Amino acid sequence: MTTQSETHRTINSVWKIEQPRLIAGLTRMVRDISLAEELAQDALIIALKKWPETGVPTNPGAWLMQTAKRRAIDYFRHRKMAATKLEEVGRSIEDDAPDHEAEIIESLDDDVGDDLLRLIFTSCHPILPAESRVALTLRLLGGLTTEEIARAFLAAEPTIGQRIVRAKKAIADAGIPFEVPRGPEREERLGSVLGVLYLIFNEGYSATSGDDLIRPQLCDEAMRLGRILARLSPDDSEVHALVALMEIQASRTAARTDRNGQPVLLLDQDRSRWDQLLIRRGLAALDRAIALGGENAPYALQAAIAACHARARKAADTDWARIAALYGTLSQVTPSPVIELNRAVAVSMADGPAAALVLIDAIKDDPTLRNYHLLYGVRGDLLGKLGRHTEAMLEFRRAAELTRNEREKSYLLGRAEQSA
């Protein structure tokens, strides 16, 4: 017999998966992002009340959408909105006959039939500041909380909250159409869209908070949308490079945790569990990006780093010198303390922990890294390799205090105990 707590856990899991599609579909209907979010939340509240009594429906996503649509009808009726809007939303509920044309369009995932892609392009309109575009899209499509987005940006939570509120108001006030633009307008927004997709992928690849290290549905959605963009912009090297990067990274998913869900470091992973199809697809996309002249662009450099790992049959075969060199180039193209942190990891493998610690100590006081748990985790690892175990223990404890992911916290506390 299913307990109420089990049902609530199921609802939370369903919500993480269905929320972006729900908001995107509702935005297409009501043409108002804030209203779409409210309607989606109303559907969730109703589910929390009803499902523990009736059980989780066979198709929970469809149940949530139908419930949200009914709430939309109530909203428009209560406010005596235009009768055409009421008729439009009502017809979509009452018509039980399958819409084969809509199903065909949706299956093609083109720039006409994909609500999620429309929502990304709407959220990435140039009327919004760059940081607001990313924050809003992560909120709507990534399903991230304001706290999680703040941690991803290494920014204050109130700052992110204000960005999101202002962005939604700006879109509403400007009457921005809910569509995938064409021609030069699409190209103008493409860079922002790619950045958002990669942040969504990263949140799936290494969850900011919660009990799971990985949120595969976010990775899958980011890759799916990336492939659509590659079809829409076949001559854009960075689109292909981002697809390459995501697919090569995602190829390791099955090997990144053990049977208990605990993290498995890259060097310790069973490479026979890496998805070779994704690797082949990723390498082909990287070749395409390079052929289009984008070899030294940011996503292509990151994809090339991932490719070095993918091509190594054994951890010992990894070309760490090349990885360190690629990070050096990437650091010149897009200077960032996080990139320097990653370069230090590669340098530690190529030249030893002492050389890497010099790089780490040069950036450890950077304000943007003050609450970045990976900085302390990497520094703890280097100190441990140098025999400075007490210092290593303190760094691992600090990293554990800062992470909000329970799997990472458990792993880091274990490293601290080993160093004691």
From TrEMBL:
Pfam families: DUF6596, Sigma70_r2, Sigma70_r4_2. Residues 189-289 form the DUF6596 domain. Residues 19-80 form the RNA polymerase sigma-70 region domain. SUPFAM superfamilies: Sigma2 domain of RNA polymerase sigma factors (SSF88946), Sigma3 and sigma4 domains of RNA polymerase sigma factors (SSF88659). InterPro entries: DUF6596 (IPR046531), RNA_pol_sigma-70_dom (IPR014284), RNA_pol_sigma70_r2 (IPR007627), RNA_pol_sigma70_r4_t2 (IPR013249), RNA_pol_sigma_r2 (IPR013325), RNA_pol_sigma_r3/r4-like (IPR013324), WH-like_DNA-bd_sf (IPR036388). Transmembrane segments: none annotated. This is RNA polymerase sigma factor. It comes from Devosia oryziradicis.
